[in-house]
Amino acid sequence: MMETAVSNRSAGRLQLVLGFWIVAAQLWYFYQFVPAMGSLLRAISHRIWR
Amino acid sequence: MALIHFCLVLLAASLFLLAQLCLGTWILRKLHLEFESFPEHCLIAACSGTVLTEIAMFLIQWTQHIREGSFFVLFLSCLPIASEVSNLRLRARQFWKNFQPLVPVERFIICLIVATLLIEFTAALAPLTGSDALHYHFTVQKLILQYGFHPIFSITRSFLCGQSHLLILLGLALGGESLAMSFLFLGGALAALSVACLATRWVPRLYALAFALLFLLTPLVFWQISSSGAPDIWMAAFVSACVLVITQVHVAASWRHALLAGILAGGAAGAKYTGCLIAVALGLAFLFEYRSVRRTSVFFLAATFAGIWPYLRNLLWTGDPFFPMLTSRFFPERLNPYGLANMMADAGTAASHSPVQLLPFLFYFGKRAGAAPGFWDFYGPVVFALAPLVLLAWRNTRAWRVSTVAWFCAGLGIFLTSGLARFLLPIFPIALSCASAGTFHARQKGWIPVHRLASACILFACVLGAAGLPIYTAPAIRAALGAQSGEAYLSARAPDYQISQAVNQSLASGSSPVKALVFFRHLYYLRVRYVAGDPGPSWQVNPDNLKTAAAWRVFLHNEGITHVVRAPDYPPVLAAGLEQLEKEGGLVRFSETEVENFTGMRQEGQRVRLPVVIMKVNSSAEVSSPAAAP
User: Fold this and answer.
1) Chain A within 8 Å of B475 (Cβ-Cβ)?
2) Is the entire prediction scored with pTM above 0.80?
3) Would the CA dihedral through B597, B601, B606, B608 be positive or negative?
4) Which residue of B has its CA nearest to A32?
5) What tens digit of pLDDT does each residue of B310-363 get?
6) Which terminus has fewer CB within 10 Å in chain A: N or C?
7) What region does B229 belong to: left with phi over 0, alpha with psi -120 to 50, or beta?
8) For chain B, domain boundaries
9) How many CB pairs under 8 A join A and B?
């Protein structure tokens, strides 16, 4: 019973870490690429405007 | 009319795919190799058939009867249709018989995959605007078709053209630019199939389909398939097919498996210099898995036979199989430092890479520091975001071992030699299939929030890609469907197109033979004979040897150049000698036009008006000028 509770707790912690990683990785990706994407977005808006 | 063109190219591409499929099925039958899954059989057969067709095309080039030879190669590759189509039909029938009915979500994803492929195929039929395609992917093949198979030192990257470029040559010889683009599109479609085939080893069909869709909606991939005009996407199909061959052996690989896997790895090696690293990684995966030196030797012998041809060509023409990468070491007297520096900078070999960048690089998170981004940088965040799940899902099975050894060894090799993320494209299907296994692992473990987050990550990437695809391809689709004229589309979208047209109008109409020296990069639309003069991408023009007007006179005379195009200025490193030549009367003004062209990166859309001045070479001034003496 106690072992199950401990394993559930560690699984929960692992899930928390994984969830944090997935969200953080995406935020980091867009943080890194958004300035870079700026030129692409400019090009796209330029194309739509034309 | 545009619709008829669309249907005809679609039909021709489908027939070509059927021919390669039947040729590959014939090869598999001769090797007594069976693959239970019909999609895997199709992928492996189509890829092995294509590698053989490329080798045949390469050999045909040496005969110099390239157009006739292309029809002959097509005829030969179509021969197995007669014997193999019934075999294929039987397999297809068996596949449908055992096919589990699709659930609505799967049906929806398949509809999205078909729609995405259709959009990408239509965009691929627009006139060519890809920068590298206009510089060398298509230009070199067009020059070979026009003037025969010969070394083209004025386009250094012509030596980078590998076996996959022969599909472009075949397409240009058989039908034209649209057919060549449709052959490149087929590589993309097969690569998407390979994502699904690789993923199916670990995950249910729904996940495999979702990741195939994600692959097609990745900006780098849809750029490669639709408008880049680069054949690299075929490498992704070859590498995945090779991994499938290595992993599909139930007990131990026979020499036949080694042979087939080697041929497929050779297809990747022959496509690009970095393909050699990938082939070595696949060979290591084979050796690691089967621990047999004899069968690994068969693998490498087959890979050498299938992929050595462009290196042999470079060796014969220049003495350097990886021209110009080893020239400074083996033939320093032949070195053009400007050409080499340009090439190294483009390939990323000149930049130093910190070991800290390795992990993000392997998980498709690397971005070239300080450089303006392009579509080649956008793999999306999915592989990196799901990396921990991939590690948790890893099991000590053959499929995992082969996939990870191939992925990480190839990635490490590319990181150490180049460090540019775009060269990771051939192993992207492997990485995505591993990411699919990671996602499914979360569900199997009952980690519902993690699984939901991972699914949301995939969905978000798909939605972003799906939003970007129509915006990116809309102008190309309008041109492909005839809503906008090809001329207007090219004037607005193709770099250096208006300069090329100005040169064509001035020089191509005359009756006397003309050869122009040009300094712009995108040469595909030129209709006159030319020598590319920019010392960066042209090995032929070494500024160290062209510092004076006299040296230029000798160069122009030796090359038979009749006109020099200045648009708008000469390259700074060459300007002094050429301006001196102008002053001495060695170049006289022939015509001047004003055109519009891109400035900086094309994707930024900045355009400027610039003069295109064409100078006629005045050979009589050689006698009158004292500087003419060598």
Assistant:
1) yes
2) yes
3) negative
4) B367
5) 999 999 999 999 999 999 888 888 889 999 998 888 887 766 678 888 998 999
6) N
7) left
8) 2-478, 495-628
9) 74
